[in-house]
Design goal:
Layout: E1 2-6, E2 9-15, H1 25-38, E3 47-51, H2 55-67, E4 70-76, H3 81-89, E5 93-97, H4 101-114, E6 117-118, H5 125-142, E7 149-153, H6 158-170, E8 175-181, H7 205-210, E9 216-220, H8 222-236, H9 242-256, E10 265-270, H10 278-288
Parallel strand pairs: 2-10, 3-4, 3-6, 4-5, 7-8, 7-10, 8-9
Antiparallel strand pairs: 1-2
Helix pairs in contact: 1-2, 1-5, 2-3, 5-6, 8-9
The structure holds pyridoxal-5'-phosphate (PLP).
């Protein structure tokens, strides 16, 4: 966790990109596999499947190999070669499927035919529990139980609601706010801006189940997420992915609306690092305008 003053607040950033595969999803991968084993659904040498082309796929590939389990990862549509290589380099088996409900149905059928357990992070309680028991507890310890606000983008909602529940239980007064892409289904739209890692076209079951701890859900445009990445990099040197920029943009909104006093301590999570997004890095480089030598 890195804390520093920024615009009248104390901003604390939990650096989840320092986990083994570079994102907060390592925590849930371990918990979801451990949970499946505990529930008698997975045995050593068994197999798990998940539909994900993002951080969860890499994390499941990593954790499965560690635990001696096969991981088959179904990626929808076109995925960057970097992401595909990451999943395969970590030992995951990759299957490409068409984007949309048909492709997903076929993936679940394929998992069944291979005898793989469908992990389903968007409805998996162990996802929530990982953040309640580990991320939330660490944030409390690292801030000495003084957190005025916690802001996080909603993908499955596991991080926001798991950490949020823990903070509300132990601090009580923490303002828990979610961030969702402008026009998203969660915000009542038909599917909105694309901010990688955040839910735009669907309403994750886990979020819906645990959302009572969330006081605000803030719409953020993808352009604002990019500005947030830039602001964070310039102010702190932390080069995070777009969902972290979106959280910073959401936090700025709370400040503008007068919901946080001067000197308040706000926590956001750097879910992953900008190096995972070559296009984002290129844009940042172009805007910085630094010359080539
Ligand atoms: C980069 C990134 N940020 C944020 C999130 C959202 O996390 P959660 O699924 O816990 O809501 C995700 C989820 O995939 C992600 O990959």
């Amino acid at each position: 966790m890195r804390c520093q003053r920024l615009g009248g607040l104390e901003l604390c950033v939990k650096l989840e990109y320092s986990n083994p595969t570079g994102s907060h999803k390592d925590r849930i991968a371990v918990y979801m596999l451990w949970g499946a084993a505990r529930d008698g659904l997975l045995e050593p040498g068994g197999c798990v499947g998940e539909i994900s082309s993002g951080n969860t796929a890499a994390s499941l590939a990593w954790a499965s190999r560690l635990l001696g389990v096969r991981a088959v990862l179904y990626v929808e549509g076109r995925v960057s070669p970097l992401k595909e290589s990451l999943i395969r380099a970590l030992g995951g088996e990759l299957v490409r499927i068409p984007r949309g409900p048909e492709g997903r149905r076929a993936a679940v059928e394929d998992m069944e035919s291979r005898g793989c357990l469908y992990i389903g992070q968007s409805g998996n309680e162990y996802n929530w529990l990982a953040h309640y028991e580990t991320t939330g507890r660490e944030i409390l310890e690292q801030t000495n139980w003084a957190v005025d606000a916690f802001v996080m983008g909603v993908g499955t909602g596991g991080t926001l609601t798991g950490v949020g529940a823990r903070l509300r239980e132990e601090v009580g007064s923490t303002l828990v706010a979610g961030v969702s892409p402008r026009g998203s289904r969660l915000l009542g739209g038909g599917g909105g801006d694309v901010i990688e890692g955040l839910a735009s076209h669907d309403e994750p079951r886990l979020y819906l189940k645990h959302s009572s701890v969330v006081e605000r859900l803030i719409p953020v445009a993808s352009s604002e997420a990019f500005e947030g990445v830039k602001q964070l990099a310039r102010a702190t040197g932390i080069l995070a992915g777009p969902s972290t920029g979106a959280a910073l943009a959401g936090l700025s909104r709370l400040v503008e609306e007068g919901l946080l006093d001067r000197g308040s301590r706000a926590v956001i999570v750097a879910a992953d690092h900008a190096t995972r997004y070559p296009d984002l890095l290129e844009r940042l480089a172009a805007e910085e305008g630094g010359g080539r030598v």
